[in-house]
Amino acid sequence: MMRHSSASDPRDQRGAARFDTTLPVYIAGDAGSTQNISAHGVYFETDVAPPLGSLVNFSLEFTLHGARQRLLCEGKVVRTERRGGRFGVAARLVAPIFDGEERVALSPRGAALPA
Hints:
The chain is mostly beta strands. It has a single domain, classed as predicted glycosyltransferase like domains (Thrombin, subunit H), CATH 2.40.10.220. It has strands spanning 3-5, 18-20, 24-27, 30-37, 41-46, 55-64, 67-83, 86-98, 105-106, 112-113. A hairpin with a 3-residue loop joins strand 4 and strand 5 (41-46). The chain is globular.
């Protein structure tokens, strides 16, 4: 389930709407899960604590039209924090890349058609 989060704090510097969603994330051989995602970044929890400012490669998994998809990403770590026995990691997306290609044709009314 996805929920939209809007920042009410005027000091919030995010440039895109965030969506609260839980997706599997894989980084450095470790599994974790997202807490929220936007067009510019992602926040996830994992057992790995990458260094602040480092570039990290990770993948997100989701289902689209009944098929499992993997989004390969590169992100710059902008924040880490201890969250219980895990680490919360905020990363600004540098390069999202789909693993495989999904082509969906749309009808004039926006409905998906077989490609």
